[in-house]
Amino acid sequence: MISKTMEEALNRQVNREFFSEYLYLSMAAYLETISLRGFAKWMRVQAREERSHALKIFEYIVARGGKVTLGAIEAPKAKWTSAGKVFEEVYAHEQKVSGMINAIVDLAIKEKDHATFEMLQWFVKEQVEEEEQALEVLNQVRIVGDIIGHLFYIDHYLGKRE
Ligand code: FEO
Questions:
Q1: 139, 142, 144, 149 alpha-carbon torsion, rounded to 10°
Q2: Exposed, middle or buried by CB within 10 Å (0-12, 13-18, 19+), for 39?
Q3: What pLDDT band is residue 35 in, cutting at 50, 70 and 90?
Q4: The pLDDT of residue 148
Q5: Predicted local distance difference test score (pLDDT) of residue 114
Q6: Gap from CA of 34 to ligand 1 centroid (Å)
Q7: What confidence tens digit (pLDDT) does each residue in 80-105 have?
Q8: 139 CA distance to ligand 1 middle (Å)
Q9: How far is the CA of 42 from the centre of ligand 1 (A)?
Q10: Ligand 1 binding site (Cβ under 6 Å of any ligand atom)
Q11: Which residue's CA is minimally distant from atom 1 of ligand 1?
């Protein structure tokens, strides 16, 4: 069993993971408009990962005898001014998500909920990877700036993400 407080916290996180999927799809749509198809592909793969995060928590709530409650997903922003701005936001967003996961870990510790604590360790590790990946692309884009030829080189490389 999980407590009502934990059930609410996990349901909120399901919603936030779906929002992340939505946000990254919105970023993919923007990147398509500026012909950075590789960046857009990277973002679609990222969106798919966010969906898998949401479903992982969904399944955990069910497994623990809790009730999944799906709320409305906030509409994401739709416009940016450059690929660099997009990745600044991805990095900031992932740091925010890490904070959300840590807050649920804190709750699990407070409630002595060992099962949820254990489940969340996967997310703690995943967030290290998510932040690292976002920062890696952000740093590459920062280095090349607005030099379109170099940006297309990164675009080609990012398009290989599966
Ligand atoms: Fe589900 Fe990118 O954190």
A1: 100
A2: buried
A3: very high
A4: 77
A5: 98
A6: 25
A7: 999 999 999 999 999 999 999 999 99
A8: 19
A9: 14
A10: 17, 20, 50, 53, 94, 97, 130
A11: 50
Q: Which two tokens stand for residue 3?
A: 């407590």
What pLDDT, on a 0 to 100 scale, did the predictor assign at position 157? 87
| Mean pLDDT value across residues 113-132 | 98
Which atom of ligand 1 sits closest to the CA of residue 98?
3
CA–CA gap between residue 108 and residue 24 (Å, rounded): 29
Q: Which residue's entry shows tokens 């997009």? A: 86
Q: Taking Cα atoms as reference points, which of 4, 3, 13 lies closest to residue 120?
A: 13
Q: How far apart are CA 117 and CA 161, in angstroms?
A: 31
Distance CA 46, CA 130 (A): 9
- Rg of the chain over Cα atoms, rounded to whole angstroms, equals 17
Say whether pTM exceeds 0.85.
yes
Domains and their CATH numbers in the chain? 4-158 (1.20.1260.10)
